[in-house]
Specification:
By secondary structure, the protein is α/β, with parallel strands linked by helices. Helix content is 45%, strand content 18%.
């Protein structure tokens, strides 16, 4: 049985509007969460005054607003229900608690919070990745459109003026986000040896910041995307910068690119490729790279054992944020390169803590500019979804559960 939660658009958010009420599973979820929470320095507070958790009065507070709905969601879909419960307002933070600060203690204990004796039942709660999210040529376009074609105006409300939607690289505590983003872009271009006359291929255009920076160095840039919304704005920005004669933007899948390039760059694109297509992705890069050329990609990663444990499971991020997404490990990248290309990683740079800071700045801007975003047709459920997404990712990077690397690849050790 389920019931509708008020003020949520059931047509737009069916998984959130209807609250599952599986009594047995809800009781099991409650019995598992209580001892788990009592090992974490947080407070879970309930409407009747009950408090769980190992945290003191100044620790982060997770306020359970609707316990029955909260445990019902956890019991029905463990990996998805926690985020859906936040979207629905079944739980929230205390008045003086930041959402990421609450999630960090859980993220630090993610691999141990559930007792080992219960982890063997993981297969019973893990939902398999749906075939509909496969990153075939048509599937990839659909998956990308679901996120990147939401609204250019919405993204502009929380990104910096470069419209860069990936980790920045900070050099000082008070450095502006735009400066840190340009340093990140320069780091990629330096790794790929981009300079005057370099023939550059960028896989995944974003809104054009990297292509502009490369063209300003004197490179001839081909940049590809399958997001029509991003392509339209990027083309406008190229013209405004007076660089459209140096940049060729193509609305094409990476599998269909032809030519030869001295440098190939790709920023946080591999996460959208899917494990099934990693060999195709890297083989395409190998095929398109000119002799003596360099490759630089920026890739979000996780530890190899975590990648192996989660590679086939369907979670909240895949359902609501990045359909078809999968985060690789460094080992998985190395193995794919060795098996399917003549390339290898010859240099790497970690920006994990920089990503945590980037995400916090984005979330602060998103919340500050929410009235303008809401005016674009986005509702409160969307706001809570994006707030949770940005804070959830921040916690992952802050604790080292996730990392992000700039990786230079070449055919030799030069």
């Amino acid at each position: 049985m389920s019931e509708l939660t008020g003020a949520i658009d059931g047509a737009r958010w069916p998984g959130v509007a209807r609250t599952p009420r599986p009594p047995l599973r809800a009781r099991i979820a409650r019995r598992i969460l209580r001892p788990a929470a009592n090992r974490v320095p947080v407070r879970l507070t309930f409407p009747d005054g009950t408090v769980w958790g190992a945290g003191g009065p100044d620790s982060p507070e997770m306020r359970i607003v609707r316990p029955k709905a909260f445990f019902g969601r956890l019991g029905a879909e463990t990996k998805i229900g926690f985020g859906e419960a936040y979207m629905a307002g079944d739980w929230t933070t205390g008045d003086d608690t930041d959402l990421a600060d609450l999630l960090i203690p859980f993220a630090e204990r993610l691999t141990t919070i559930v007792p080992q004796s219960l982890q063997r039942f993981r297969a019973l709660v893990d939902e398999r990745l749906p075939r509909s999210t496969r990153n075939s040529v048509s599937g990839a376009r659909k998956n990308i459109e679901a996120h990147y074609d939401l609204s250019n105006e919405m993204f502009a409300q929380f990104l910096d003026s470069t419209m860069t939607y990936s980790s920045a690289w900070f050099a000082a505590p008070d450095e502006p986000l735009e400066t840190a983003q340009l340093r990140k872009i320069d780091g990629i271009l330096d790794q790929a040896r981009v300079g005057e006359g370099t023939r550059v291929l960028e896989i995944g255009s974003g809104w054009g910041a990297l292509a502009i920076r490369a063209a300003e160095r004197g490179a001839q840039v081909t940049t590809i995307t399958i997001s029509s919304e991003q392509a339209a704005l990027a083309q406008e920005r190229f013209a405004e910068a007076g660089l459209d004669d140096r940049i060729d933007l193509q609305l094409v899948d990476y599998r269909d690119v032809t030519g030869e390039y001295d440098a190939i760059v790709s920023v946080e694109m591999i996460e959208a490729v899917g494990e099934e297509y990693w060999p195709t992705y890297f083989a395409a890069i190998d095929r398109l790279l000119a002799p003596g050329g360099s490759v630089s990609i920026q890739a979000i990663t996780m530890a190899h054992h975590r990648y192996l444990a989660t590679r086939d499971s369907y979670g909240w991020i895949q359902k609501y944020i990045f359909p078809g997404g999968l985060i690789p490990s460094l080992e998985a990248i190395d193995q794919t390169l060795a098996a399917h290309t003549s390339l290898s990683v010859v240099e790497k740079r970690s920006l994990g803590q920089d990503y945590a800071r980037t995400l916090r700045l984005w979330r602060e801007r998103f919340n500050s500019n929410w009235p303008a975003i809401r005016a674009g047709g986005f509702d409160e459920t969307f706001r809570r979804m994006w707030e949770f997404y940005l804070a959830y990712c921040e916690a992952g990077f802050a604790t080292g559960y996730l990392d992000v690397y700039q990786l230079r690849m070449a055919r030799d050790q030069a």
